């Protein structure tokens, strides 16, 4: 049992929450503990942590799941990089075991976010140049190794637009990202069944009032979009504009192997990246993922002026709903006991994943 100020879908309750693997009961009661109890964070875009990159395969997913759990992330998607097909298959084979069985003291790996290789060669960002066009057969063969929950795609690549409804029918959330497309390409993707946008503002054509791009399509029409609130990838003013325009925009970390590590050189897929001054860059100086954790994302959003409940929804409830995970991302009886407890400075003092105490 935990006591404090508890965020439920109906609002704040001061009282107690009782749970085993699942939440049994939430009751109002005097509880002057100074603690805030939120749903565990759900991160749908994670490349690494603790010096380990998802593309390494093997036990990388378990290491990453444990490190992020320490910061309140109770569920996540292992996220791949653009790479040659054998390297992607190797990474997925490593993730399959972690998805099948949650590592002890680790977050639940809900599946895969396939960020590459079905992207634009003109909007690689920190992705290596091993792009290829998607086919239904290829995606299904990758999905057979480990379940793909989210797939990033550049809709302007020939054949991709027609593929979107087929992938959506398989239950995948197709996202527009790493795209050199126009506003019309973004709108067409949404009409075809695309569900969101990958790290909004980054790796896509930007706003232009004469020649609008993918960002404009998202701001004008999207219900969901990822955004990286590390205050490095996107200016706070642009984040606030996006949150005002996109009702259920949600935060992701885009965390790399450098997360939780000292400054230095790390792997991001086949590339070398460098952590310095709180961010990660390629040798060219371009941003290359982040070292953000979800607890810091919460503090950043609140520091920008968001109400704590709103900030929590954008790190838990909305990503859960986006994936159709109705038993996560909310504190209600019957839901998984994925819980983060914060002190008055919004620092985690306890984390529970499916009832297991992590902190």
Tell me what you see in this structure:
By secondary structure, this protein is of the alpha/beta class. It has a single domain, classed as Metal-dependent hydrolases (TIM Barrel), CATH 3.20.20.140. 26% of the residues lie in helices and 26% in strands. The chain has 10 helices and 20 strands. The strands form 5 sheets. It has a 7-stranded mixed beta sheet, with no helix packed on it. A 6-stranded parallel beta sheet has the order 5-8-9-10-11-12, with helices on both faces. Helix 5 crosses helix 6. It is globular and about 60 Å long. The two termini are 15 Å apart.
Distance between the termini: 15 Å
In CATH terms, what is the architecture? Answer: Alpha-Beta Barrel
The total count of strands amounts to 20
Structural class: alpha/beta
Mean pLDDT: 97
Query: Biggest sheet, open or closed, and with what strands and sense?
Result: 7 strands, mixed
Domain Amidohydrolase-related: 36-348
GO molecular function, one term: N-acetylglucosamine-6-phosphate deacetylase activity
EC number: 3.5.1.25
Family: Belongs to the metallo-dependent hydrolases superfamily. NagA family.
